[in-house]
Design a protein that fits this description.
It contains four helices and six strands. It is elongated and about 100 Å long. Strands 1-3-4-2-5-6 form a six-stranded antiparallel sheet. A hairpin with a 4-residue loop joins β3 (145-149) and β4 (154-160). It has helices at 2-22, 94-102, 125-137, 161-174; strands spanning 76-79, 110-116, 145-149, 154-160, 182-185, 189-193.
């Protein structure tokens, strides 16, 4: 019984000391909440961005001449949603198989064929872009998405490594390209050309 009483006295003493210590801490009143946005009662302050949106000229798709910026052509890309691909893909050539092994490429890793203006001697870059759009709609390019970089004078054709040799041969034949086109892989640069 004596131990129990001593424990009660010790606990009450600790509580008394704690209350005394906390009395010396400064207290402050919490300020009233004021939202960063105007309240529903204040109709004179509508939400509005600081600057007006850029004006787009519907004829050329460029910004208004008053902006003083140099004229920049836009780039566009296209891709197909899970289209079925029925053609049988031939096995890799010996040269491409060596590239895949040497660079440790995964078959589902993305690679990029680069078509330059100098590859389009028989036509133009815009004509090749049109041919690629048609091919994409007809599901002739498996796992591909295509991007035209008009400011660089290039078309980028992205595909899985698994289909990249087939896609390269398709591009050379269907788009009637001249010279060599190069296959580039992220962080490794150009790894193959045909």
């Amino acid at each position: 019984m004596g131990v129990y009483c001593r424990n009660i006295r010790a606990c009450s003493r600790v509580c008394f000391l704690t209350e005394g210590a906390l009395e010396h801490f400064p207290r402050r009143a919490i300020p009233a909440f004021s939202p960063w946005f105007p309240s529903g009662y204040d109709k004179s302050l509508p939400l509005k961005p600081q600057r007006d949106p850029p004006h787009i000229n519907s004829i050329h798709g460029q910004e208004t001449p008053s902006s003083g910026r140099t004229k920049q052509r836009r780039s566009w890309s296209v891709f197909c949603h899970g289209s079925a691909f029925n053609k049988n893909i031939q096995p890799f050539s010996k040269q491409f198989q060596e590239v895949v092994e040497r660079c440790h490429l995964h078959l589902l890793q993305r690679a990029k064929w680069i078509i330059r203006e100098l590859n389009c001697v028989a036509s133009s870059l815009e004509h090749v872009w049109t041919v690629l759009l048609r091919s994409m709609r007809q599901s002739k390019l498996p796992t591909c998405n295509v991007n035209i970089q008009r400011d660089l004078g290039q078309i980028w054709v992205f595909c899985d490594v698994l289909y990249s040799e087939y896609v390269g041969q398709f591009l050379r034949c269907e788009c009637q390209l001249t010279g060599q086109i190069s296959l580039s892989v992220h962080k490794q640069g150009a790894v193959f050309s045909m």
